[in-house]
Specification:
Translation Initiation Factor IF3; globular; 3 domains; five-stranded mixed sheet; 27 strands; about 500 residues; about 35% helix; homodimer; eleven-stranded mixed sheet
């Protein structure tokens, strides 16, 4: 196979990079840290978008669009927010280029300097809350439940395709509420939506939890998250939902008249997931042969490859395949028939394994005679010969089985590397093996900081549904209210 | 009515601005020239996107995503392209902010100056052709048929919501081909897609044509366009499809080995439509009562308003309405039931007229008794009482009728203000009345420039299906091969 991958065991990081490139998902661009998302990678993003968008709308949200640019002064209005983002901003300072006086190329026109610099949005709380000020007067204007699909820019120093890029695509929900309880309920509701999406569509089991203060979103009172575990034992934050309290309403002076005619600041949430999810998808399921895509997000779920000796055979096979394709499509299954004559079947098999197509069907002259097909599963790499009788129902069932199997495999893996650790000495040994470590912690940022410095592990979250037996901190011996999850993370 | 609009006759421009704001489509943001697209406006854009995306995919295109930023040096590589865009670029010069030394707010960190400035994309030919260089070696790699949905920035001095904004949303198709004929065929094919979309979905009749050299896209050999006519007699360019020849392939050195093993430059097309279409949609059909939306693009096609005296009546009506709603939805019709108790029916009627909902159904106690509904059409503002028997088929037919009626009205209007003009004196009188003027022109940029300076009219296009009888230029008396369309334009 021409497109051989580095194996995961040899070098997991290289395996990931190889896979993203060779499966045609994305590549680095001429612009430092910015990626080109190639058609196959973008098709996965479109699947993610479609499902999430449907889930957002079913929970009462609408889409809108806010400006790409944020006036510099807006960033300063929320003290913690500015600390979080000022150091990684793309700053627009001019609005025109001119021919260079030396005749060589273009230079910035000094006459076209902006009065106030504009920041390319790293996130949109500030511009959106400045807008909401005009939309909200009374409790009757609440809640506002807006989402936006957009690109954002954070000037990252070390980037990796999908996982950490200077520009990335995401959705950001920004909601406004009359009460603290409503805003908190919304924050938790969207965490559930993310968890449900991750598990049912991405087939990635996630732990729902709360971030420690160190890992909290800049400007939030509380950050809820879903944490996933990759095959190399490192954690990946797959989505966050922030309870913002009245911080942004205060920063942008957004008040409303409540039912009792009292003026109060508006309560807020924000929540987002990004193209980073594609990185999580790749790293959760794929193997040394390439991608393994869950059927619920695969750009096409079934590929059909004909094996033939001559045009006549191909014509006969194609006719039968067209019947099968129509039946599969009637069940809502997406199918690609690859009758490209320039490539041999073996090449195609390797290619679709690399691209993670869940099911491969092969039809040859013998199959045509016998009324059968060869069915190959990507997840288990097993093959069997199946009758064409009710093939659409068989494939439909198989896709569901694959979806469940992929999830279960990830769940079993996580279970196998999740364990309780009770002393810091033990922790230092165990953290080298990867996985989720359930440990008692005294609740202080200092202890978390020390663990991070000494072991590169962070608190991924304080689990919402974890064991709440109290204990003593593995580092300081001080009281701990419950175990939290430590891991090294992407 | 609280939300009264300026009438079109009184001040067409003000009517447009009022309507965009009052129908909750969009508003100006804190960032000069950038708009906030509000949920109702964005819902129209989502409808536009969904249909166009389907049409692109049916014609063999795939989506991808390319970086927001373009290195400054890329712009200079295609000589005409740089002339067209350098003067209206948002330029990123730094990647970090820092606390101001005087303690007041943030300043750009001088240490974080970029080696090479980045331009926020005004269009993506340069970054995409730089990428295609890595994708194309042989004729087997062609064609490439990519589209991207994205935001772009052009630093416009005078902006108007939807029609001309500094940032706007659009799609841009960028295709690569082995032959001139293939690239030209693609260019024309996408023009047909745009025309078909404009007429069947937006209900806007368009003239397909070619731009004169003055109006051509910067870097194209030929620009094809669809031109629409607004109710005030001004033209609006609704979409363009560019034949780029080998210009960008040469600028970025993109060559391929053809079937005969010869190296040649790749041929290109690019094509785009933007949120400007929403401006065209508004100005084509709407009236002094508000928006008139074609059913094929309305966020909801039917609104149902109950009229009731008490809770009991509302409950009985709601039960019936739920049945009707289910039937309508089964026909693919989108419905909103507005049982909001805070607003009176009269307020709701005005509100949905303002928002251009194609059909309003009203059910009161009498209707419930009689098994009827009041059906009001937004396009004609007529009302009738209709039996509930087969109501879903009636409404489905009515929506189709409205779609056709809106298109026909726009077509009739255009016909009424399109006329042949044979002398420049006559032209100067007629251009004041608006509309499309079919005139002979000598084919020179100088003559077009003179007409523009003296009358503010431009050549909208050389129609593809126009009368090709030759004549003499209305300005210079020189020979003309066919009549072209002059108009004042947005």
């Amino acid at each position: 196979m021409a497109k051989e991958l580095t194996s995961r065991e040899e070098n997991y990081s290289q395996w990931y990079n190889d896979l993203v490139i060779k499966a045609d998902l994305a590549e680095n661009s001429a612009v430092r840290g910015c990626m080109v998302i190639k058609p196959y990678g973008y098709a996965i993003w479109e699947k993610i978008q479609a499902e999430l968008d449907r889930m957002f709308k079913e929970t009462g949200h609408v889409n809108a669009y806010f400006p790409l640019f944020i006036p510099k002064s807006f960033l300063s209005k929320e003290a913690e927010h500015v600390d979080g983002f000022a150091k990684e901003c793309a700053v627009v300072t001019h609005h025109r280029l001119m021919a260079s006086p030396d005749g060589k190329g273009l230079v910035v026109d000094p006459e076209a300097k902006l009065e106030e610099e504009l920041i390319v949005r790293p996130t949109s709380e500030t511009i959106i809350w400045n807008t909401y000020k005009g939309w909200i007067q009374s409790y009757r204007d609440l809640p506002i439940l807006c989402n936006q699909w957009a690109n954002v820019v954070r000037w990252e120093m070390r980037t990796r395709l999908f996982l950490r890029t200077t520009e990335f695509l995401w959705q950001e929900g920004h909601t406004a509420h009359a009460t603290e309880a409503d805003a908190l309920e919304e924050t938790k509701k969207m965490l559930e939506v993310y968890a449900d999406f991750a598990e049912r569509f991405m087939a990635i089991p996630v732990i729902k939890g709360i971030k420690s203060a160190n890992e909290r979103f800049a400007g939030a009172l509380e950050t809820f998250c879903i944490e996933a575990l990759m095959q190399d034992g490192k954690a990946l934050q797959a989505g966050t939902s922030h309870f913002l309290g009245q911080n942004f309403a205060k920063a942008f002076d957004v008040t409303f008249m409540d039912k009792s005619n009292k003026l109060d600041y508006v309560w807020a949430s924000s929540w987002g997931v990004s193209t980073r999810l594609i990185g999580a998808l790749i790293m959760s399921h794929s193997d040394d042969n390439g991608l393994v895509l869950p059927p619920n997000l695969a750009p096409f779920q079934v590929v059909i490859v004909p094996i033939y000796k001559n045009e006549e055979q191909l014509a006969a096979i194609s006719e039968k395949v067209n019947e099968i394709t129509a039946k599969l499509r009637s069940m809502g299954i997406s199918v690609k028939f690859d009758n490209n004559d320039n490539k041999k079947p073996g090449w195609k098999f390797a290619e679709y394994e690399l691209k993670g197509v869940p099911v491969r069907l092969v039809m040859g002259a013998r199959d045509l005679e016998n009324g059968t097909l060869e069915v190959a599963r990507r997840d288990t790499m097993t093959k069997e010969t199946v009758s064409l009788q009710n093939i659409e129902r068989y494939i439909s069932g198989l896709l569901k089985e694959i979806q469940i199997n992929i999830f279960q495999k990830a769940l079993d893996y996580r279970a196998s590397v999740t364990r309780e650790v009770n002393s810091y000495d033990e922790f230092k040994v165990e953290i080298e093996k990867g996985g989720f470590l359930l440990c008692h912690w005294d609740g202080t940022p200092e202890t978390e900081e020390r663990v991070k410095e000494e072991t590169k592990a962070t608190i991924r979250c304080i689990p919402l549904n974890g064991d709440t037996t109290p204990g003593t901190c593995m580092v300081t011996g001080k009281p701990s209210v419950q175990r939290v999850i430590f891991a090294r993370a992407y």
